[in-house]
Amino acid sequence: MATEPLTFSSAVLRAPSRAVRAWPLISPRWAATLGGVVRMVAQMAALWAFSAGGSALASGMHLPVPGNVIGMCALFGGLASGLLRSEWFESGGGFLTKHLAFFFVPVTVGVMAFGSTFARAGTGIVASLLISTVLGYAVAGITTERLAKRS
User: Fold this and answer.
1) Which of 1, 44, 121, 137 is the most buried (most CB within 10 A)?
2) DSSP states of 73-128 as a string?
3) What is the pLDDT along the chain (151 residues), one digit of tens a residue?
């Protein structure tokens, strides 16, 4: 007795005596969720790759600029030139931005170890933070106003 070969047709694997559902192995809802998670992880990996590449470049060329700044500039250059599209980073970047406060917890705990330094130089530290914040806001505001007037 000759057997018929298995055929794949419309997501059902057909054998002569039975039909076995081959796809989807998981529900469409879970497939969409899993796809979103995989996409987000891939986007975060790409962002990390820019940071790590910048760090490797700064270390290898003994540059006085932090590597993550070089990576951010490379990412900005890719986005500004059109080689990269912002949609490629929206999910991963949105996740990181949404949970940004969580990433400051280790820094805050580390700062607590320097209580004596803050007791000794706290006024100068707070003053420099306030001045730099005000200057940063002023530069951002002036730049935004000038760019808005151009367009």
Assistant:
1) 44
2) HHHHHHHHHTSS-GGGGHHHHHHHHHTHHHHTHHHHHHHHTTHHHHHHHHHHHHHH
3) 555 554 444 444 444 555 555 555 777 777 778 888 889 999 999 999 999 999 999 999 999 999 999 999 999 999 999 999 999 999 898 898 898 888 878 777 877 888 888 888 889 989 999 999 999 999 999 999 999 998 7
Q: With 0-12 CB in 10 A as exposed, 13-18 as middle and 19+ as buried, what is 40? A: middle
Whole-number Cα distances in Å, 151 to 101, 138, 140: 34, 20, 17
- Which of 86, 89, 83 lies closest to 44 in space, CA to CA? 89
Element (H, E) at 9: strand 7-9
| Sign of the torsion angle spanned by Cα atoms 10, 14, 19, 25 | negative
